[in-house]
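Hi everyone, sorry if this is the wrong subforum. Our group has a chain we'd like a structural model of before ordering constructs, and none of us has done structure prediction before. Sequence below.
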Amino acid sequence: MNRYYATYQQKLRTPEEAVKVVKSGDWVDYVTNVCFPTLLDRALAKRKDELFDVKFRGNLSFGPIEVAECDPTREHFCYNSWHFSAYERKLSDRGLCSFIPMIFSLNGEYYKHFLDVNVAMMAVTPMDKHGYFNLSCATGVAKAILDKADIVILEINEHLPKICGGFDQVIHIDEVDYVVEGEHPELPQVPIAPASPEELKMADYILEHVRDGASLQLGIGSLPNVIGARLAESDLKDLGMHTELCGDAYYHLHKAGKLTNKALNLHRGQGMTGMVFGTKELYEWVDDNPSVIVAPLTYVNDVRVIGSIDNVVSINNCVEIDLYGQISSESHSTRQISGTGGQLDFLEGAALSKGGKGFICMKSTFTSRDGVLHSRIKPSLEGDIATAPRSQAYFMVTEYGCVNLVGRSTWERAEMLISLAHPDFRDELIKEAQARGIWRRSNKR
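Answer:
Right subforum, don't worry. Here is the predicted structure as tokens:
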């Protein structure tokens, strides 16, 4: 019998047996996205009445998270997220999830230097003949958590893709305390939403700035993915991928023959990512595909690494921006809706890249529940969380245009940003700029 298989059998437990190691007061990590350990979470939720003050960390989980759902008092289980998914946002609205501020490039360092992990649980691929489990779609953050944990429990998910590695994409059976098995449903599907007219206009503005051979980073959310799909329909060629998240837009670029990674001056011929989630077609494409490699976000999102790549084009969402150029990408007033993620990393990295450009996109308006139209360009951020400081604002895009704020004075920024606002709000924004002493002349384009 293969030694590794024998060791595997010795460490094999039922989910109910494995979660007995969790004690009151422990910190438990669930890692991220489709590597969420559903069987272990379900088994641990059943222990609610015998445990107190067990604290959890996770992020971008699609749910359900049973330890959160089963304890509305949060006396027994307290779930926390580094970056909200839509599901975690709803948990937060119900008072069942707290937010942990962070920047993705530093997340591994937080664990290494500052945080305790009593038990780490995550879903992985089945063990290979050499005794290794692939960390799959969660590689970007997983190894640092597993390395810090006192106890490591792996849940085998038969549907996870095996993704080729840059490094730290596997863990060996000798490093694992327990393994659990069981049937799982298909992986969560996160398809690209249909494009709105405003998004198509924004995509066209950005396309004017993208050249053959560009290395793309498409952020979390529908808009960057819609723009990626638009790029797949363009005449561009030999595009590359260096991104914290690989979603379906990259698969569409590959199908269209646009994503070759041939022009990359780092990891030539291979697109690099830290995390993966999307549709079944995406999971099948990345599975054991040597043209797609994963690595920790401490590397992928390192501004020095990003800056060493030529022609980086970074495309991310925001929620609001003020006339000074301060960008809010993670909250609506004090309501947390997502997270900082890697936006700061790629804004700075794109600025360091030869030929690099960092884009922040948003629709110019939103309609509140009472039917009132509001501008996303505001005089100042009042209660909103500033994700990117004005000193890191670069290209800003709405359906009304694209402007570059780099090196611009306060009055120039106010003019440029007001030109991106919905026409119904421009006069009022000009008055606000005048009152703040950041207005020089009228430009109501």
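For your construct planning: The mean pLDDT is 95. The CA atoms of residues 317 and 361 lie 5 Å apart.
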